[in-house]
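Suppose a colleague, Dr. K., hands you the sequence of a protein chain of 398 amino acids and asks what its three-dimensional shape might be. Before reaching for any lab equipment, you can write down a predicted structure in token form. Begin with the sequence itself:
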Amino acid sequence: MKITKIEHPIEESKKKVAAYARVSTLQEEQEESFDTQVKYYTAYIQSNPKWEFVNLYSDQGISGTSISKRPGFKKMIDDAKSGLIDLILVKSISRFGRNSYESQSVLHELKMVGVEVFFERENISSFDPTSEMLLNFMTAIAQEESRSISENVIWTYDRLGAKGIRKVGSEAPYGYKEVHGKFVIDKKESEMVRRIFDWCLEGISTLKIIDMLYEHGYRPKKGAEKFSPGTIRGMLMSEIYCGDRLIQRQPHQNYLTKYPDPTRPYKQFYVENNHEGIITKEEYQAVQKLLGTRKLERKTSVDGKRVTCNTRSHPYRGKVFCAICGAPFYRTTYAIKGVMTKVWRCLGRDKKNGCTNHYVKESDLIQIPIPEDPKLKIYVKQNKTLCIGQKRPKNPKW
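The predicted structure, expressed as tokens, is then:
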């Protein structure tokens, strides 16, 4: 009897390999480093016949102290936990992360699902049983380096702030453009800013200002249909528009969370006459006083109900109503034959299929005395004052 041994060797499967690259700024030399990492790891993985190239995950211009703000890193970890990756290559521990606790937690999670991480500069594998203490030590050093960098940046900001120096930022405020690091008035945008402050001083609400901006064809820079209430209130409260500048509006970021740290003291610097203002300082102060009044009024209540006073800014406010639909008139500015003219307009016209009543010039309106009796109102139709009474007339005769 002849017995023949038949072997069935197990074909060794290719190891699924990915790489991670990160740079923390978008400066030219950092961008070159990022491109170099991408090209190197792509070629390196594909050149190994025992490896299968999965992907090169990356985060550009992002700090390594918080995983939550690194979408590329998060995607890589999710793919690894889903079984798509066996080995992750990283240039160094500091590229993997600068938060000691988060880095160690992620390495432990990956180890539990059989995913190895190899750090080339330190020549350390997360699967090496002797490397755990060294990895803990190296991640702590990376975190300390991040803290030191953050402290140096804050110190620099404070030194420059004391001299009234601060970068314009990623985008100049609406109404200005950045020229050689300075605010310069943008003629077209400044017209809108001017109108916003004028309308506010006339007692027009923030929501109404938003609608009026839309009617006049003004749109936000980032593609939204209308400005948000927060944007308009922020503009009205900003000292930028009267030519001053407040440096360091909020606490410095925590170097780990990247959110403002309210527990840490910080310095602010108020720079007067930093640039040319769109409005005067007197107008700015008047708006701040008015906004403060509105804030107090919003908090005023009677029997648990919110009460708003309509006589805080203009003597005719709350006294002029439409004789057609009964809606209140509000004060605004129109260009009539090329001349900017104060007019009063029916609020009902702003609604879809709204009122057909026309505006009335303020110069005509003020010819009608304000009723002393608070129950009496002024009713207007088609550029003419109709009457003074308690109720809207049903069939007005002209």
